[in-house]
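dumping these here so i dont lose them again. two proteins, back to back, each one seq then structure tokens. dont judge the mess
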Amino acid sequence: MNRLLLPIILISSVLFSCCGGDEPPPTPDPSLDPIELELPAHFPVPNIPSDNPMTQAKIDLGKKLFFDKRLSADSTIACASCHLQENAFSDPNAVSVGVEGRTGERNAMSIQNLVFAQFLFWDGRSETLEDQAVEPLLDPREMNISLEELERRLTADAQYPDLFQHAFGGVPTSERFAMAIATFERSVVSYESKYDQYVESQDSTIFSELEWRGLKLFFDETPGIQHPECFHCHGGFNFDDQADVFSDNGLDFSPEPGRAEVTGDFFFDQGKFKVPSLRNVEHTAPYMHDGRFATLEEVMDHYQNRGDRIVGTNPFINSIFLTEGDKTAIIAFLKTLSDPNYLTNPAYQPD
């Protein structure tokens, strides 16, 4: 062999060995890349925690967990059992039914735009979706399973260990379970209603005459004119109260302490509950924290002429006067907050 060729061959062999022979470099997995939600310009910046960035792998895992009944004590109840997509991820029952037919005390709240949520549950006892995700597991009236048993079942499953390894780089744990569920719930968004189209276009002809009248009643606070001014409690892009999250809604006081159960302030917080979003409200019946009203008409009847029967501490509710025409118009407007795509989106359905 030519002396000059020998060093070249040796160097080439070393380089070939260092580069792993003919094995190509690993292909990046896009399901592990942080993703951003596609949202309209009139929505604020989403609240995504830095220690739990959104990835498609976490969303897919969270969705599988969300629909899995095997994660309840008797394998009969999943998160999705009390949060049905056709009902805007709420429960058509006044209160939800858990394992062994046990019933709770409050209506299951809708899952939509929770990526912006400040507090979870009617009394706001959980400040993050990660905290919220494990509470139904531990509640004996809901899924009634311990975190230790949850981890045992996930670890023993044929698929979950690989899915957790892929999404988190580790074994199934209750903490990672909560992070996956929270990530899926943050992906469930609603922003394509008729009202959103109006905000984007500023074209009022999108609405019927009755819907437009309802919008004016909902938002108008012109001095000297009687308006219900619903937006004071159900304001902002999500039609909930981002400034004063908890309020009483004029219901008769009852043993239900509401927010006071969390804060211990029974003077100020007794009977106050989280103000729910009105998006897709025509699909979230029954209404109120205890599901006492079956229809939007019953809700309007509750608010009609509140000035002659003052209950609670909310000054806006105590000054509402509504005619039958007002109620019809407001309900017509509320139905423009429905989002057909959100209600049928296959991305929110089990694979």
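---- next one ----
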Amino acid sequence: FIQQQAGQDDREAYSTLNMGAGFAIFVKADDAERTAQIARDCGIEAWVAGTVEAGEKQLLIEPLGVRFS
């Protein structure tokens, strides 16, 4: 609603608004799914949202084709 009312495209909205991602925890890749499962077992909605990789510093939201460098 806010994005529509402000006339923002996805890139602008993700750079200025809290788009509902909530709380992020960064863990080793080998521990990611186990960490998410522990959270779910405690009644907290959780999922593995992405990876941290060596290379250019950037955030990529693949489903929307949005990239921040």
